[in-house]
Specification:
By secondary structure, this protein is of the alpha/beta class. Helix content is about 45%, strand content about 15%.
Length: about 350
């Protein structure tokens, strides 16, 4: 039985329609009451990703619930700079709020990379038990010690698949010498180097061009991102590896967030928590339909031998290396939901 507190169900068409309607520069009608606080929220995600639609809804709800006291201007799709630029801007206070992937966040907060450990999570049951439990608490504590504030529950940047323009990637040997784009993240670089590939770190807003010009042969991302970024236009194969799960974290500049009265902080956390939970459901629904849609746009899906990839990583000492880097406490919190990783 549904209740008034249940997340509102929306279709894929409604998600993408709402997100696509976001202008490149959002023009706000100021409320009748002058805002006490005017902040900026930036994302690096392309316009038609569900995270942007849900964040825009949250911004509108915050303005309404605060009676116009807090106005948050929304700048999606890298309007204010690349992901790495936005991390710096948020720390300095030039941007007050930022939605960022865990993989990019790990460049300044190394523990954030633990959710990106290659072939660690078997599915979403493990993911949400970890990120909403002790593992997530450890990461948020590091965020709050590192020049940012963790504002809300993590959202879903998805399980990632490897795409290619030249050949299907089914087993570790298919990656030898392969030029693959990865986010600016030590974990991703380490994973693919260990598997024999040649990873290149490129910001997402430069990825389509890098694939189009054959600077790299392939890339890896979730299906939502592959579709939203129209990567099917410059790729041919999708290997169903589920090799990494990545979250979205919503960060705030500490001075800006702490300047808010307690009642406004409560509103902000409540509405962005709601946005994250609803975005998770959006991605779950999209993942059930995107495979057939992307196949219709020319991508060929191929199975991948996950156990072979994990065995290759284990043999090469990948897991031992990262266990030593993260430390016994975080590793134990990870294995509490994944089982033994070796």
């Amino acid at each position: 039985m549904s209740t008034s507190n249940s997340p509102r169900r929306i279709s894929r068409r409604a998600v993408l329609k709402a997100a696509a309607a976001l202008p490149l520069v959002t023009i706000w009608t100021r409320p009748a009451r002058a805002a006490e606080f005017t902040y900026k929220l930036a994302t690096g995600q392309s316009l038609n990703q569900p995270i942007n639609a849900r964040l825009k809804e949250a911004v509108d709800r915050i303005r309404e619930a605060s009676s116009g006291r807090l106005e948050i201007r929304f700048f999606p799709a890298s309007q204010l700079g690349s992901d790495t630029d936005l991390l710096s801007q948020t720390r300095s206070g030039a941007v007050e709020l930022l939605n960022i992937s865990g993989s990019v966040l790990s460049t300044v907060i190394p523990l954030a990379a633990i959710t990106n450990l290659g072939f660690a999570f078997s599915g979403y049951d493990q993911v949400w038990r970890g990120i909403d439990g002790d593992l997530g608490k450890l990461i948020r504590a590091q965020i709050d010690k590192s020049g940012y504030v963790s504002v809300s529950k993590a959202a879903d940047n998805g399980f990632r698949q490897i795409t290619s323009a030249t050949k299907p990637i089914k087993a570790p040997e298919d990656l030898r010498g392969y030029r693959i784009r990865v986010p600016v993240s030590p974990m991703f670089t380490s994973l693919f180097q260990t598997l024999g590939a040649n990873p290149t770190s490129i910001n997402f807003n430069e990825l389509y061009t890098a694939l189009q010009t054959h600077l790299v042969d392939g890339q890896e991302n979730g299906l939502v991102t592959i579709e939203a970024g129209k990567l099917y236009e410059v790729q041919k194969y999708v290997a169903e590896t589920n090799h990494i799960w990545d979250p979205f974290w919503l960060l705030a500049n500490p001075r800006a967030f702490n300047a808010l009265p307690d009642d406004l902080k409560t509103i902000v956390r409540r509405e962005f928590d709601r946005a994250s939970v609803e975005q998770r459901a959006d991605v779950a629904r999209l993942n059930t339909s995107l495979k057939s849609q992307l196949s219709g746009k020319g991508l060929t899906f191929v199975p991948a031998d996950r156990e072979a990839f994990r065995a290759a990583l284990s043999k090469a000492g990948f897991y031992t290396q990262w266990r030593d880097k993260f430390g016994a406490g975080p590793w134990s919190a990870l294995e509490a939901v994944t089982g033994k990783i070796s």
